[in-house]
Specification:
Pfam families: WxLIP_HBD (PF11797), WxLIP_PGBD (PF06030). Keywords: Membrane, Transmembrane, Transmembrane helix. This protein is of the alpha+beta class and about 375 residues long. It folds into 3 domains: about 180 residues, Sandwich (Immunoglobulin-like), CATH 2.60.40.10; about 100 residues, Immunoglobulin-like (Sandwich), CATH 2.60.40.10; about 55 residues. It contains 4 helices and 19 strands. Strands 1, 3, 5, 9, 11 and 12 form a 6-stranded mixed sheet that branches. Strands 2-4-10-8 form a 4-stranded antiparallel sheet. Strands 16-15-18-19 form a 4-stranded antiparallel sheet, with no helix packed on it. β18 and β19 form a beta hairpin. It starts with a helix and ends in a 6-residue tail after the last helix. About 25% of the residues are buried. About 5% of the residues have low confidence.
Length: about 375
């Protein structure tokens, strides 16, 4: 994990430590013109929670109420999304829409988006309060564990700022739905181990799945790499205070900062995951190999491209030189022909200008041919 990722993760973790399921507000302007308040119903399971923690029944239908207030002098447009809780790459529970980044987890049979519905857009006039209704319809089959999701509201200021950008406020209200108090334990699976190379460094991506309808807190990852046939650890990392949403997957990325991994090397990846919250431990050992092509493939491809480009450029250069030489030769021929034509033209002009002189010159030449010698 890079320093930038660590800083972002610490910032998000600061919120999650105090509000495990929370009303989370992000804003890009000072002074919130729009406020969002969840109206907690009678079937609120945890009265201390500021989010929806509802005890439901099979086939139950219910309207969740959100009070939205606009204290500004201008109307505001609200965009509303219903999202499933997922686990992001920073190891935290995420209530935003990540459907374009990841696929729905195969273990998720009933999601929050499956049972909830809401208007996608609402306009709130200046100094107006409005109740937004989110309709819930629980599945017929009873279940243990939880359904976890979030209601995301985005308020846009219709007047752009100096840099012509609309100011936005983002509000997220978590929704936790349960039917029983039957305890459910998380279960983790190592789905995939994928070695890649980025910016000259190897990165080992381990995809981990929580296939149960319960969140997992206080997770500690310990990853070790050894060469196959050896017990000596050549690389190790530890990462703490991670979380996982119910029925979700995440990717743990191990960056070879020490550059101990070599092309065509054969290694073993040892991963231990421990939850300090539940005292559960999972261990995996997975073999992987770094092919030669992973490091040299791009280099060989680059050399091939250079050779092809060089041959093409030489061919074009030869063709260009040939055309220039041919053009020069034709130019010389044309200039020679033009000179001969000009010479003949000048000669004709002289004859036309002095015809008598020309005739006399011809006669003189004839006489010279017939002058007898003195001996004759």
């Amino acid at each position: 994990m890079t320093n930038k990722q660590k800083n972002v993760r610490l910032l998000i973790l600061g919120y999650s430590l105090f509000l495990p399921f929370f009303l989370f507000i992000m804003t890009t302007e000072s002074g919130l013109a729009v406020s969002v308040k969840p109206i907690l119903p009678e079937n609120q399971h945890d009265p201390e929670a500021t989010y929806y923690d509802l005890r439901m029944k099979p086939s139950q239908e219910q309207e969740l109420k959100l009070e939205v207030s606009n204290t500004s002098d201008e109307e505001r447009k609200l965009t509303i999304q219903l999202n499933d809780a997922t686990t992001n790459f920073l190891g935290d529970i995420d209530y935003t829409d990540r459907s374009e980044q990841i696929q729905r987890d195969k273990s998720l049979t009933v999601s929050f988006k499956d049972i909830a519905a809401v208007e996608s857009q609402v306009v709130i006039s200046a100094h107006e309060k409005k109740i937004i209704l989110v309709h819930l319809k629980m599945p017929k089959e009873p279940f243990d564990g939880m359904i976890l999701g979030g209601i995301k509201l985005v308020s846009t200021n219709p007047k752009p700022t100096i840099d012509n950008q609309n100011r936005k406020n983002v509000y997220i209200v978590a929704v936790k739905l349960t039917e029983t108090d039957t305890p459910v334990q998380a279960n983790l699976n190592l789905l995939q181990l994928l070695p890649t190379k980025k910016a000259g460094q190897y990165v080992i991506h381990a995809t981990i799945q929580n296939d149960q309808a319960v969140n997992l807190e206080a997770i500690e990852y310990t990853a070790e790499i050894t060469e196959q046939g050896s017990e000596q650890v050549i690389y190790q990392i530890k990462q703490n205070d991670y979380r996982m949403a119910p029925n979700s997957s995440t990717t743990l990325s191990v960056l070879d900062e020490a550059k101990v991994l070599q092309p065509a090397g054969k290694y073993l990846f040892h991963l231990t995951v421990r939850s300090k919250d539940t005292d559960q431990v999972w261990k995996w050992e997975e073999a992987f190999e770094l092919p030669k092509e992973a490091s040299e493939g791009k280099h060989d491809q680059l050399i091939l491209y250079i050779v092809i480009c060089t041959v093409v450029l030489l061919f074009l250069l030869i063709a260009l030189l040939s055309l220039l030489l041919l053009r020069r030769r034709k130019q010389k021929q044309y200039e020679a022909e033009l000179y001969q034509k000009k010479k003949k033209r000048n000669r004709r002009k002289k004859v036309q200008q002095h015809p008598q002189k020309s005739n006399e010159q011809k006669k003189m030449k004839r006489k010279k041919k017939h002058i007898p010698n003195n001996n004759e």
